[in-house]
Amino acid sequence: MAVYHCFLYDEPQVPIRLLRLSPEIAASSSATLTGERSGSLLQGSLEVFDFDSAPPFVGLSYVWGSAENKQPFLLNGDEVQITENLAIALAHLRDEHQEGTLWVDALCIDQYNDQEKSDQRADSVRIWLGPSSGQVDALMDFLEKIGRIMVCIGKPASISSSLWDVNIFKKLMAENPQISEAYLSSEEVEKTNEALRELTIREWWSRVWMVQVFVVAKDVVFQCGKKLSKLDVFETAVIEFMQILHATDSSVLQTRGWMHLVGEYSYVPGRGVKEIPINRTFGLRHAYVDTQDPTRHTMGYLLKTLYRTAVNDREPKATDPRDKIYALLGLAGDSESLRIIPDYKKTVRDIYTEVVGKVIAKDGLSLLLTCRYNPSSGLPSWVPDFRQGLVMSPIDRVTLDKGFCAGSAGIVEIGAQPLDSNPNILLRIGRVSDTGTSLLRLDDDSFDFGTTTRFISKIEGFLLQSASMDICPYGATDDDNEGHDPKWLQEACYRVPVADVQSNANWHTMTRAAASSKAGFDTLKEICQLDEEMTGQDQRFMLVMRGFNKWGNYFPALYGNRGRKPFITTNGYVGVGPGEMEVGDDVFIISWATVPYVLRAGQGSSRSILIGDAYAYGVIDGELMGKHKLIDLELE
Question: Where is the Heterokaryon incompatibility domain (predicted)?
C-alpha cells in the first residue's frame, strides 16, 4: 500500500503510524463481521506523527490468531484483509459515535519491514482477552467488585503471598465480611470457578510479545467482550479471589478450575500464588520496576529477565522463534549497554548465540543452568534453546540462605566470552574434577515411592563405594572408623538426593539442607519401606500424615531432581547430574561457576560439549579450588 512510506530512522524525531478508527455510526454496512457483533464494515485511516508529538493513543494487545477466514477492513479507502481475531477486537473497541486513536501492529507497521517490526511501543495498552460469554461477563463483574473492595480497604494482593497462609486471609475476611460475601453470595460457585479457569488459559497469557507489551506499558486496561477492568483492580481481584477460594471452601481445590490455576505444581509443597501462571505475568511487571532504577540492578538484569521469563512460561509461544529474545529486550534495563539490537535478518542460531554470549561475558555463567543437551537443536551446547520453554534446574536456588560457589570460593568474577575467531565457541578457564559413572534415573512418569527407594538406594550404594576406596575424597574410610560408617556418610545420604537444599518452614523458598532434612529423609525412607513391604493402606496413610511435618519439607527438593541421574566419579565423588549423562562424561569445575557441570568430549576435536549442570557432594563450596591446574576450556 502507498501509505507505508519507509521511515528514516536516523531522523531526530522517530515517526509512528496511528490508526484513526471510525465510529460505528459512520461505517458502511456492506460487509458482515463474524463474531459477537455484526453489521457494519470496519474502517479507518492511518496517519503519521512524530512519536513525541503524537496525540494520545491506545496500543491494542491481542493474539493475531489464524490467518484463515480473514475479514475486510477499509483502510484509507482501500480494502485490506485482517485476521478474524483483530476484526472482532476492533468491533468491540470502536465507539458508536466518536473516532478512536489506536496503535495496532498489523495495520500500523509495515509487516515487510523488519526494522519497523523491531520498534513497537505504546504507553497506554488495551489488552484484548477475547469475546465474552454470559458466565465470563458475570465473572468480570464479580472481579471488578471484589477488586475495588480490596483496593479500597488498602489490602492489594502481594506478589509474594502464599496459598498456604490460609489463616491470614480468614482473619482478613472476618474483619471485612463484604469480601467473602461477594463470593459466597453466588449460588453457582463451580461455574464461577470454571469461568475463571477459562479466562486465565486464553492464549493471550502465553504469547511472548503480549508479556512484553503488558510489562512496559504505563497504563493497562483489560477487556473481555465489552467488560473493562483496570490493571490494579483486575490483578488484585484475581489473586485475592484465589485466596478466598482456598480460605473459605477446601472442596474448591478439587475442581478443574482451581487445579488449572494452581498449574502443574499444584500438588507440590513450596509452590504458592506467585507460581500460578497468570500471576507470573503480573510478577514480571512488578520486577520490571527494578530496571528503571540503575541503582537497583546490575549488568546481568537481562539474564534474569530472559531466564525467569523463559523458565516461568512453561511453553512460551511466538510465531517467530526470534521473538523469544526480541520481545524480552525491552524488559531489561541493561539491553542497551549490551548493544543487542533487534535484527530480523539474522538466523535463530545467530541471534540466540549472540545474546547468550554477550550476557555470559557481562554477567557470568548462570545462564548455563538452563542448558540441556539436545544435539538436534542446531545450537551450540552452551546456548539455551528458548524455542522450547526452559526447564528450571534444581541446582539454581536463588533464594538459598547460603549460595553455592563450587568454582569461585564465594568470589564472583566474569570474563567468559565467545572467541573472536568463532562466536559459536565459548572460551573459559576451568578446573578438571574427574570422569563420572551414572546409572539410575528418577523418571518423570514414574515418580512414586518405589522409584524414590531405588533413587535413594543407588545414591547410598555410591556413597558406600566411595567410603570403601583406598583414598576416599571425603576423608575417613570404614577402616579408620573400626567398621562404623564415617560421619560424613550419614550427612551425605540425606544431602545428595536433594542436591543440598530443602523447603523452608513455610514452603515459600528453598534453603540449604539442615539437620531437619535428616529427619525428613529418615521418615521418607520409612514410608518407602512400608510401601515396599505392601503394608496395609491404613498404616501407610497414618505414617504419611503423622510424618508430614518432617518429610513435607524434604520432598519438594527431592521431586525437583526428577529426571536426573545419580553418579560416582572415578575419584569417588558422588552427586546427581542431568538425565542425559553417560558413563565417561566429565564432571567439571569451571572457574567462577557456582556449580559443577557435566561435559562430554566433542567428536574429532579438543573441544567439549555441555551436557548440563550437576551437584557433587563435597565440592559445592569451593573445596576443590587450588587442587587442580587451570586449563583452557572451549565449549562448542
Answer: 57-212
Cell of 203: 492464549
Condensed to tens digits (0 to 9), the pLDDT of residues 439-476 reads 555 555 555 667 788 888 889 999 998 888 877 888 75
In eight-state DSSP terms, residue 336 is: T
CA distance 2 to 368: 47
Encode pLDDT of 338-381 as tens digits.
777 778 888 989 888 888 888 887 777 778 888 888 888 899 99
CA distances from 105 to 117, 374, 623 (A): 8, 35, 54
Instruction: State the pairing for strand pair 417-418/615-616.
Output: unpaired
Cell digits of residue 276? 500460578
**Distance in angstroms (rounded) separating the CA atoms of residues 427 and 417:** 6
- Phi, psi for 421 (deg, rounded to 5): -75, -20
For the ranges 65-79, 255-269, 397-411, 445-459, the maximum mean pLDDT occurs at 65-79
CA distances (Å), 74 to each of 93, 385, 469, in order? 16, 41, 81
The per-residue pLDDT for 197 is 74
Among 32, 219, 210, 20, CA closest to 107: 20
Show Cβ contacts of residue 466 under 8 Å, excluding neighbours closer than 6 positions.
472, 473, 474, 568, 572, 573, 574
The CA distances from residue 606 to 455, 495, 499, 635, 636, in Å, are: 34, 35, 31, 9, 10
**Rounded distance, CA 544 to CA 536, Å?**
12
Cα distances from 587 to residues 77, 296, 493, 591, in angstroms, run 67, 35, 20, 13
Q: Show the 3-state SS of 577-631.
A: ECCCCCCCCEEEEECCCCCCEEEEECCCCCCEEEEEECEECCCCCCCCCCCCCEE
Return the higher-pLDDT residue of 11 and 123: 123
The number of angstroms, rounded, from the C-alpha of 339 to the middle of its chain's C-alpha atoms is: 24
For residues 437 and 568, the answer to whether their CB atoms sit within 8 Å is yes
Q: Which grid coordinates belong to 59?
A: 496500543
With cell 546481568, the residue in question is 300
Rounded CA separation 128/227 (Å): 10
Those residues whose C-beta lies under 8 Å from the C-beta of residue 557, and which sit 6 or more positions away, are: 394, 498, 499, 501, 502, 503, 510, 513
The H or E element containing residue 557 is helix 555-559
Model pTM score: 0.70
- Give φ, ψ of 432 to 5 degrees: -80, 135
Nearest by Cα to 393 from 327, 315, 467, 310: 310
Per the CB < 8 A criterion, the answer to whether 503 and 556 are in contact is yes
Q: How many CA atoms lie within 13 A of 279 on its CB side?
A: 25
Nearest Cα to Cα of residue 562 among 504, 511, 499:
499
Measured CA distances, 474 to 130, 198, 583 (Å): 60, 54, 22
CA-based nearest residue to 433, from 302, 298, 300, 571: 571
Task: Strands of 380-452 (E only): list them.
Answer: 417-418, 426-438
CA 452/CA 532 separation, integer angstroms = 11
Grid look-up 488459559 returns 201
Of 444 and 284, the structure prediction assigns the larger pLDDT to: 284
For β-strands 100-103 and 124-130, DSSP reports them as unpaired
Residue 24 grid cell: 460505528
